[in-house]
């Protein structure tokens, strides 16, 4: 069977190569150019905190935030999150260890280290394992030649303090960078002025689950990024990087536990060789390894009558390697590659006696050590025929999931995925693009094997069949880009109290663009809307975690040494929700943010900002039972987002 699948890959390549139009070959990257959104210069623009999820929510209408704290938040992309979207940091995968999503991949990188984030919507990726409905590629800062550096000091509401520094330098042969940061904050207050404990009391959270103290630290976060890059020859590059994150005492007030600490490490190595001959225009060899250590406990809560608290200590790691070769075949650029990765996830529960320190093991909620091993071959073809750009890809995966839990079966999955994407350029100001694709993702260890009533060892892998259509148009100073999509999900993994496979559909549109009033004055806009429906006979046919209509609007003015920006994030009432999955209706809201940046002297820059200027009380996040929230009267509690937040940042650059 495997031989047949590989033959299909070769036949697909040959089919696309059969056209005889000639062209000058370069990477066309039609999917990235047409169906992606790039959030640029995050390290300079998103100064409020280290939280990447919040930065993306402010900049992309298709991305919504899953609020858990002032830091370490998660994202929803076009109605999908968790393993349904792929998040890479410098092409490395990192998975959170917490089954309750306290430490999503977005929490293992800080905004002051990020250059750009590229968001590719849909199943149009064959180079990475498990891109079901979207790909988020985080690119951290690269070292520059000569000697440069910057220092940032930041202070904000709720006792927030941050310091960061970056030093970089080198020549045309060797370049290096080191960046370090530390930040901490008290618990935020909502628009009513209530902190975490006060919100818990107002919402009737049981006394045992409430915090012991009112004035409590919400998090402390430290991070280091190091990079070393060698220009071995004119045609060869070697890149090394290491990222360390050390987080302590992260509070999750809507849940029953908090993170004692959350430590992660990411190692990457990349080697590129160009122009090896007629069979290789560029050869890339990449390796990564990441690991996360995450104990969460109830030691900051009041607890019950017994002088004990529970700890769930989880760890995860993944290593992966990719070999990718690009070559010119006729008038097409062909990429072929091998990709493999191994993820381990394990954890255990234990109780601690507060008086004696005695630890007693427990099998409750145990995460038995489970390995997910993926091996894949992929190919991609890029071609231009006059004004028409074409890109097609295929990927064949074999995945084995092996667990140490007894009395359940190990799993094997095999899939063939692919896409075709095209764009027609009417002229330099207008183009239309469309794509169809099929992708899949396998269930994870929590969904299959964790010792809970929700796990299900009989789960099939989820398949996504999707079509996307859009166009771009520039008329003078006005730019507009509307897109629509329709996604058919087969064996969609869904938490209905127990993980199960269902069939469903998600469809929607987004509209983005800008208008330049002058060279200094600009208006940016974006709107996104999705609907999700279950197929079949269900009491509630709405899918969970499908955000309502969202708008991102911004006016910015820049002149000589200063910049001013006002932005509005508006979200409609969450009226389509899955009550059977413990979601609930949420009121709509609109928040206004202001930011002013002034160059003081040659090397100094001052930024002043206020988020949620009008101190609105609102909820951004629904209560889908895939995350365990505290329940009151059988309902999972809603927790308010932060109220008015002011901050100041002083940057010194050299």
TrEMBL record:
GO molecular function: siderophore uptake transmembrane transporter activity
InterPro entries linked to this entry: Beta-barrel_TonB (IPR000531), Beta-barrel_TonB_sf (IPR036942), Plug_dom (IPR012910), Plug_dom_sf (IPR037066), TonB-dep_rcpt-like (IPR039426)
Keyword Transport appears in the UniProt entry: yes
Domain TonB-dependent receptor-like beta-barrel: 231-613
Residues annotated as signal peptide: 1-19
Main location: membrane
TonB-dependent receptor plug domain boundaries: 39-126
Recorded superkingdom: Bacteria
CC terms in the record's Gene Ontology section: cell outer membrane
Record's bilayer topology term: Multi-pass membrane protein
BP term (GO), one: siderophore transmembrane transport
Compartments, record wording: Cell outer membrane
Keywords from the named record: Cell outer membrane, Membrane, Receptor, Signal, TonB box, Transmembrane, Transmembrane beta strand, Transport
Family of the protein in this entry: Belongs to the TonB-dependent receptor family.
The protein's name in its UniProt record: TonB-dependent receptor
Native organism: Aliarcobacter cibarius
């Amino acid at each position: 069977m495997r031989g047949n699948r590989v033959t299909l890959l070769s036949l697909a390549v040959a089919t696309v190569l059969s056209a005889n139009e000639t062209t000058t070959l370069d990477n066309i990257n039609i999917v990235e150019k047409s169906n992606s959104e790039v959030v640029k210069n995050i390290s300079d623009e998103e100064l409020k905190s280290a939280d990447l999820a919040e930065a993306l929510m402010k900049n992309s209408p298709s991305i919504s935030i899953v609020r858990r704290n002032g830091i370490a938040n998660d994202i929803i992309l076009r109605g999908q999150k968790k393993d349904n979207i792929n998040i890479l940091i410098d092409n490395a995968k990192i998975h959170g260890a917490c089954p309750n999503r306290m430490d999503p991949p977005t929490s293992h990188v800080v905004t002051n280290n990020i250059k750009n984030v590229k968001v590719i919507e849909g199943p149009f990726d064959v180079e990475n394992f498990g891109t079901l409905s979207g790909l988020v590629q985080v690119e951290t800062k690269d070292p520059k030649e000569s000697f440069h550096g910057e220092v940032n000091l930041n202070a904000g509401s709720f006792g927030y303090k941050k310091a960061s520094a970056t030093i970089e330098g080198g020549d045309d042969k060797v370049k290096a960078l080191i960046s370090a940061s530390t930040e901490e904050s008290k618990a935020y207050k909502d628009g009513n002025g209530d902190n975490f404990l006060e919100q818990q009391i107002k919402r009737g959270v049981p006394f045992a689950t409430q915090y012991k103290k009112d004035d409590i630290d919400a998090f402390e976060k430290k991070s280091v990024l190091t990079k070393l890059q060698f220009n071995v020859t004119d045609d060869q590059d070697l890149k090394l990087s290491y990222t360390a994150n050390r987080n302590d005492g992260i509070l999750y007030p809507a849940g029953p536990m908090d993170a004692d600490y959350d430590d992660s490490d990411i190692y990457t190595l990349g080697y590129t060789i160009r122009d090896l001959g007629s069979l290789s225009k560029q050869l890339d060899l990449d390796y990564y390894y990441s690991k996360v250590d995450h104990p969460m406990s109830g030691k900051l809560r009041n607890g019950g009558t017994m002088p004990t608290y529970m700890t769930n200590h989880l760890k995860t790691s993944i290593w992966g390697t990719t070999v990718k070769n690009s070559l010119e075949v006729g008038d097409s650029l062909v990429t072929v590659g091998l990709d493999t990765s191994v993820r381990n996830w394990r954890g255990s529960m234990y109780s601690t006696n507060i008086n004696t320190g005695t630890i007693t093991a427990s099998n409750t909620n145990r995460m038995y050590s489970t390995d997910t091993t993926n091996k894949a071959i992929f190919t991609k073809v890029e071609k231009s025929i006059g004004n028409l750009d074409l890109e097609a890809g295929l990927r064949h995966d074999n995945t084995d999931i092996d667990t140490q839990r007894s009395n359940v079966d190990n799993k094997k999955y095999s899939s063939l995925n692919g896409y075709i994407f095209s764009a027609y350029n009417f002229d330099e100001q207008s183009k239309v693009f469309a794509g169809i694709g099929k992708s899949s993702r396998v269930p994870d260890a929590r969904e299959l094997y964790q010792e809970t009533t929700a796990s299900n060892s009989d789960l099939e892998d989820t398949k996504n069949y999707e079509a996307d259509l859009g166009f771009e148009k520039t008329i003078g100073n006005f730019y507009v880009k509307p897109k629509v999509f329709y996604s058919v999900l087969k064996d969609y993994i869904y938490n209905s109290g127990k993980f199960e496979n269902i069939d469903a559909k998600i469809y929607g549109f987004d509209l983005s663009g800008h208008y330049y009033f002058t060279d200094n004055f600009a208006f940016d806009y974006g709107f996104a809307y999705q609907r999700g429906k279950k197929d079949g006979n269900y009491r509630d046919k709405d899918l969970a975690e499908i955000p309502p209509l969202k708008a991102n609007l911004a006016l910015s003015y820049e002149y000589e040494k200063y910049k001013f920006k006002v932005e509005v994030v508006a979200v409609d009432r969450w009226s389509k929700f899955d009550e059977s999955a413990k979601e609930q209706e949420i009121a709509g809201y609109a928040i206004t943010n202001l930011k002013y940046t002034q160059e003081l002297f040659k090397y100094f820059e001052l930024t002043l900002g206020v988020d949620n200027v009008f101190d609105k009380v609102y909820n951004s996040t629904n209560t889908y039972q895939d995350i365990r929230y505290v329940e009151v009267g059988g309902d999972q509690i809603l927790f308010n987002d932060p109220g008015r937040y002011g901050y100041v940042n002083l940057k010194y650059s050299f």
